[in-house]
Design a protein that fits this description.
Blueprint lengths: L2 E8 L3 H12 L4 E5 L12 H6 L1 H20 L14 H25 L2 E5 L1 E8 L2 E7 L4 E10 L3 E3 L12 E2 L1 H4 L8 E5 L3 H12 L3 E5 L11 H14 L2 E3 L3 E7 L3 E6 L5 E6 L1 E4 L3 E3 L6 H4 L22 E3 L10 H15 L13 E3 L4 E6 L2 H7 L3 E7 L4 H6 L5 E7 L5 E8 L2 H13 L4 H6 L9 H10 L7
Parallel strand pairs: 1-2, 1-6, 2-3, 6-17, 8-15, 9-10, 9-15, 10-11
Antiparallel strand pairs: 4-5, 5-6, 7-16, 12-13, 13-14, 18-19, 19-22, 20-21, 21-22
Helix pairs in contact: 1-9, 3-4, 3-6
Bound molecules: flavin-adenine dinucleotide and 1,4-dihydronicotinamide adenine dinucleotide.
1,4-dihydronicotinamide adenine dinucleotide (NAI) binds next to helix 6 and strand 18.
Length: 474
């Protein structure tokens, strides 16, 4: 006999596990199915984000930044470090502990919220009188029925044609996060978010890093001024970023040889100890049995949804990386919450224009809303104001004055249209901009708010003042 639920969630990444918790909070009998397992076969909920994405990458970024500071920044503070060395195995061990804390935290939250967790692969079987029948295959064999099903099956790394991931020499994000010794020469294909974050980790630990990017422009989606500053700083850090390349051949034997044409069309050959391929991700619907029940996918394999995350099937919803929109954990979470609330008859709204982006390099890059390029293309008149961290007291005390905050506001109404930052801790500073934009604030609103002194956030206030050409400290 099938166990009956109000809501079945397939996938326990940030989209799925948050949807399950919210559904349970709203009083629904909720199941969540996830197949991710630790090397010894135990459940590892949290999806890509927890296991091979956001969390482990930030753990390694922190470790490598600490090492870099100890080697380069401490001396300026009068701190002498003798015999500085990096124990990569220990760094990885710590990362694994951080990941496990998050896996365990989710299992605890499921218990606390009375979400029933099934460890295995969830597949649609059929639509019956009691709703959707979903089978679980794996350690927890079961048949469930759900009045509603939320598909939150995430995404997988895209491989280069003819160069499958072996996770030894040709690495996806999973392999890139598990390297046990610093490669002498590391190649990275794709200068996107993963390429820059992972390239930074291994560069700081001493690898010679070459990043090969197909597009002629660096960080094309980012504000041009920010991208320009980032390119300058990354080059200074020793990241060799080559733009406009065309990969011809990748061959993995004892090491990895990459043949490519450079921006001038000249044939080049590079040999690396390891190659990270980070050229985007593809939606994952493997094993869902989508075709058999008629779940509609688009031409790129994403589950087709409307603005409210409804699929073409009655009472079947989809959220997160497996649907259109940015592949970000917090976007997946917002959709998960919104779907649970829609099932409960509420009318939640997500403003995709205020979903923030952060690249956790050093300096960090963060933005929300529109770039100058987008506004120019749309013919919107705007004013912009910037303030450099060089003129910020807290940044000077920190010893990190790279970058700036830039605010773009509508020329007539002064309403904030976009905020772009590069510099220390801007992953935290961007929240003020998100709140301001959610509340429909003007640049003047931010300029009028009292910001603590000395703090990095004063750069945001000063950038708002700069929109009206009246900065106080620059
Ligand atoms: P996922 O997290 O991919 O979870 C899907 C889950 O479903 C998985 O556990 C999978 O095993 C399970 N599943 C799939 N099919 C089935 C099935 N049939 N049955 C049972 N279970 C199934 N985003 C950020 O916002 N900030 C970051 O700093 C960040 N860093 C990242 C770093 C890296 C290296 C990578 C790769 C990604 C990063 N991301 C980051 C992106 C983020 O990880 C994803 O956007 C997010 O995980 C998407 O959540 P999701 O719930 O849609 O899918
Ligand atoms: P990406 O889309 O950020 O970058 C991929 C890059 O590869 C692009 O610049 C693209 O032009 C380039 N590319 C594509 N094909 C190529 C080819 N054949 N040769 C050379 N270059 C090529 O994708 P990435 O870095 O793989 O990350 C996937 C997603 O994961 C991101 O888009 C983001 O949504 C998410 N992510 C988010 C993070 C964060 O929020 N801090 C961190 C890491 C990942």
């Amino acid at each position: 006999m099938a166990t009956a639920f109000d809501v079945i969630v397939i996938g326990a990444g940030p989209g799925g596990y948050i949807a399950a918790i919210r559904a349970a909070q709203l009083g629904f009998k909720t199941a969540c199915i996830d197949e991710w397992a630790t090397p010894d076969g135990k459940p590892a909920p949290g999806g890509t984000c927890t296991n091979v994405g956001c969390i482990p990458s930030k753990a390694l970024l922190q470790s490598s930044e600490n090492f870099d500071h100890a080697g380069h920044a401490f001396a300026d503070h009068g701190i002498t470090v003798k015999g500085l060395a990096m124990d990569v195995a220990q760094m990885q061990k710590r990362k694994n502990v951080v990941v496990k804390q998050n896996n365990d935290g989710i299992l605890f939250l499921f218990k606390k919220n009375k979400v029933e967790f099934f460890h295995g692969r969830g597949s649609f079987a059929k639509q019956g009188a009691d709703g959707w029948e979903v089978t679980v295959a794996g350690k927890a064999e079961a048949t469930l029925t759900g009045k509603h099903v939320i598909v939150a099956t995430g995404s997988n790394p895209r491989a280069l044609p003819g160069a499958p991931f072996d996770e030894k020499l040709i690495l996806s994000n999973s392999g890139a996060l598990a390297i046990l010794e610093v490669p002498k020469k590391l190649g990275v294909i794709g200068a996107g978010v993963i390429g820059l974050e992972m390239g930074s980790v291994w560069r700081r630990l001493g690898a010679e890093v070459t990043v090969l990017e197909a597009l002629p422009a660096f960080l094309g989606a980012v504000d041009e001024q920010v991208a320009k500053e980032a390119a300058k700083v990354f080059a200074k850090q020793g990241l060799n970023i080559q733009l406009g390349v065309k990969i011809a051949k990748v061959e993995a034997k004892k090491d990895v040889t990459v043949e490519y044409a450079d921006a001038a069309g000249k044939s080049q050959k590079a040999v690396f100890d390891r190659l990270i391929v980070s050229i985007g991700r593809v939606p994952n619907t493997l094993g869902l049995n989508a075709e058999a029940v008629g779940l509609k996918l688009d031409e790129r394999g994403f589950v087709t949804v409307d603005a409210d995350c409804r699929t073409n099937l009655p009472n079947v919803w989809a959220v997160g990386d497996v649907v259109r929109g940015p592949m970000l954990a917090h976007k997946a979470e917002e959709e998960g919450v919104a779907v649970a609330e829609r099932i409960a008859g509420q009318k939640p709204h997500i403003d995709f224009n205020t979903v923030p982006w952060v690249i956790y390099t050093s300096p960090e890059i963060a933005w929300v809303g529109q770039t100058e390029q987008q506004l120019k293309t749309a013919g919107v008149e705007f004013r912009s104001g910037s303030f450099p961290f060089m003129a910020n007291g807290r940044a000077r005390a920190l010893g990190d004055t790279t970058g700036f905050v830039k605010i773009i506001a509508d020329a007539k109404t002064d309403r904030i249209l976009g905020v772009h930052m590069i510099g220390p801790m801007v992953s935290e500073l961007i929240s003020e901009a998100v709140v301001a934009m959610e509340f429909g604030a003007s640049a003047e609103d931010i300029a009028l708010i009292c910001h603590a002194h000395p703090s990095l956030s004063e750069a945001t206030k000063e950038a708002a003042l700069a929109v009206h050409k009246r900065t106080l400290n620059f």
